[in-house]
Amino acid sequence: MKRTTLKDIAKALNTTIATVSRALHDNPEISDEMKNRVREVAKLYDYKPNSTALSLKFQKSYTFGVIFFTLNQYFTTQILSGLLQEATKNGYKLIVAESNYDPKKELELIQEFYELNVDGILILPSRKLNTKRFELENIIRDDVPFVIIDRTIYFEKKKIPFITSDDYVGTREGISHLIKKGYKRFAQIKGLDSSSISNIRYQAFLETLTRHKLEIDHRKIISCQEFTKEEGEELANQLMSLEDKPDVIFCISDMVAVGVLHALRKKGYRVPEDVAVLGFSNSNICEVCTPQLSTIHQPGVEMGKKSIKLILSNIKQKKDISDVKIVMKTKLIEREST
Amino acid sequence: MKRTTLKDIAKALNTTIATVSRALHDNPEISDEMKNRVREVAKLYDYKPNSTALSLKFQKSYTFGVIFFTLNQYFTTQILSGLLQEATKNGYKLIVAESNYDPKKELELIQEFYELNVDGILILPSRKLNTKRFELENIIRDDVPFVIIDRTIYFEKKKIPFITSDDYVGTREGISHLIKKGYKRFAQIKGLDSSSISNIRYQAFLETLTRHKLEIDHRKIISCQEFTKEEGEELANQLMSLEDKPDVIFCISDMVAVGVLHALRKKGYRVPEDVAVLGFSNSNICEVCTPQLSTIHQPGVEMGKKSIKLILSNIKQKKDISDVKIVMKTKLIEREST
DNA sequence: TTGTAGGCGTTATCAC
DNA sequence: GTGATAACGCCTACAA
After folding, report:
1. Residue B252 within any structural domain of the chain
2. Taking every annotated instance into account, which residue ranges of this chain make up the domain HTH lacI-type (chains A, B) (predicted)?
């Protein structure tokens, strides 16, 4: 039941492994007769080259390591799908790991991936990885391409390519669309200040309102931590207990927006008449909730594919990708909640 | 920037790689002095053993190959999370692949995994893999453990371990609970007849009704293919256009159930007063929809963990697992739709 | 206590 | 046209 090797074939044909190897590679120096005999036996024995040996020989594993801060979100699994599709299409495998929001684990996983001789590393980091960016900068090796997906982390000296969705424009489009519809009192449920993603959306939110000469009420801008439905409910209640109630609640995630919807319904507010609710990501829950949730679509699958293309452009065409920053278009998806 | 090898350390210390290797393995034959010197240099050079070389040497990769028919469902990503947790905990990596419901691709992926020298293969097969079970049986190798998750496939000669959720008991509990509540006219939206999962739930559905001496109306039992919300809506409309309308619709998946809910609401039926709706899986959409969906919880994360434990019991303790069939408890989750 | 050499499976550079 | 051999990085039985 052991796998057949070149040696086995060589023995069977009373020749050497060198000849067998060459024959299987269709080396012109080998006679057609020998080639045929080798191929025949190879087929008979169901010979398959040993990829571990090849990895050792060529110092390449045709493997990428991928780290997700979680796989428990629709958006992240969409990215995984995209990564897988493009990777397998190009003959690469993916070793997948989940850090569960733990930046320390992310650093460890990166080290492990290097030890595994992966040909590249892609990471959807937790928000907190930014606090460990100095350690990260020291760990990252220059000879193995590294791509950061969805977030942006700035280093002292190193240049690392990023791939994100265009949350700035996405937010701007969403907000200005609502402004055009006549909404005026905008609230935002954002993430923590340490999140690059949250900050971009926050900036876009502020600047879009400012450009349209709308007042910005900072009591209507609050942060959530866990991005859960429960948190969304709680924060919505908080917002609706303000003297001057919002007529738009722009949320950091779809799940938070769903929580907001629930809270609003419980309190008897009509959506979108009294209050419009806008989510972010376009996950599978948007079509499920009532009213169906308007949101800003992030192209997860495409981002995954693009990430692999990017890393392969470095590996195959030796392109310098260290300066690359890919920003993928988002799209406003209007449903019933706005 | 090249990784340091035993050779580098040996050269630095004017000794041989054998000595270095032994010193690093704390071999008692090596003098303490040499050990210290080796360790020092190893640390200095940041030596890390080359796992590819070890794989080649020991014919083990500490890697499992995992195949998912899709990663686009909450349940499957829960399983992935469980697999990852337990695998990394035990020092194993996961190479992940997605077959996109294509049984041919599944067979190919299995072959590829063998060529990669994985130490085990786990698969959540597509329904259609059963049609290729003869080919599958021929492909599966006896020296690499193989585990089938979520579905059951029966072979001529080979014995393969399965791990599934107890859909029979889950269905029975769900249905009998509804019977106790006074519902009488049960409809089922099941999957195709070629699906082992669907059939188990179908059997449990029939037998539970029979045991409670309730009439079985076969016009109320219909199949869906894509498990989408749209299909759920369509089939619900079909069911509600029957002369004798059902007062329960038991669905093959949560997403289908959500479609049913939408259709019922559009037609003005009240849930759960006029019609109760029961889903399957307990995915994240259940709490999102209105009314919140009652469902039968499948323990995805636990199934993933258990699968790894199973395969490791074969690898580490040499246990024969070929006859194992693990059936994990489900749990009825009652929410607003029943 | 340490060194030598063979082998894991492959490719590539020499010879012949 | 084919064979022998070194090398990839590591471990280990056997020598010394």
Report:
1. yes
2. 4-58
Together in a domain, A199 and A256: yes
Residue A33 burial (C-beta neighbours within 10 Å; 0-12, 13-18, 19+): exposed
We report the CATH number of the domain holding residue A319 as 3.40.50.2300
pLDDT, one tens digit per residue, over A83-97 is: 999 999 999 999 999
Cα(B65)–Cα(B278) distance, integer angstroms: 34
Same domain, A41 and A140: no
Tally of structural domains, chain B: 3
Question: Nearest Cα to A285, choosing from A207, A245, A337?
Answer: A337
Contacts of residue A4, Cβ cutoff 8 Å, sequence gap at least 6: A42, A45, A46, A47, A48
10 Å Cβ neighbour count for A71? Answer: 20
A 10 A CB-CB count for B123 gives: 27
* B177 occurs within a structural domain: yes
Residue ranges, chain B, pLDDT below 50: none
Q: For residue B175, give its domain range.
A: 167-299
Q: Is A333 contained in some domain?
A: no
In 3-state terms, what secondary structure has residue B24? helix
Are A10 and A63 found together in one domain? Answer: no
Residues A177 and A92 in one domain: no
Residue A39 lies in a domain: yes
Is B88 close to A80, i.e. CB distance below 8 A?
no
Name the average pLDDT for chain B.
Answer: 95
Structure token pair of residue B85: 């947790």
Identify all chain A residues contacting B48, using CB atoms and an 8 Å cutoff. 114-115
Q: Estimate in Å the CA B5 to C1' C1 gap, whole number.
A: 22
Q: Are residues A189 and A223 in the same domain?
A: yes
Q: How far is CA B179 from CA B38, B176, B293, in A?
A: 73, 5, 18
A290 vs B289: CB contact, 8 Å cut-off? yes
Strand C–CB B29 distance below 7 A: yes
One domain, residues B161 and B177: no
Judgement on whether residues B110 and B159 belong to the same structural domain of the protein: yes
Residues A179-236 have pLDDT tens digits of 999 999 999 999 999 999 999 999 999 999 999 999 999 999 999 999 999 999 999 9
The span from the CA of B74 to the CA of B227, in Å, is 13
Q: Are residues A209 and A283 in the same domain?
A: yes
Nearest nt (C1') from A56 Cα: D8
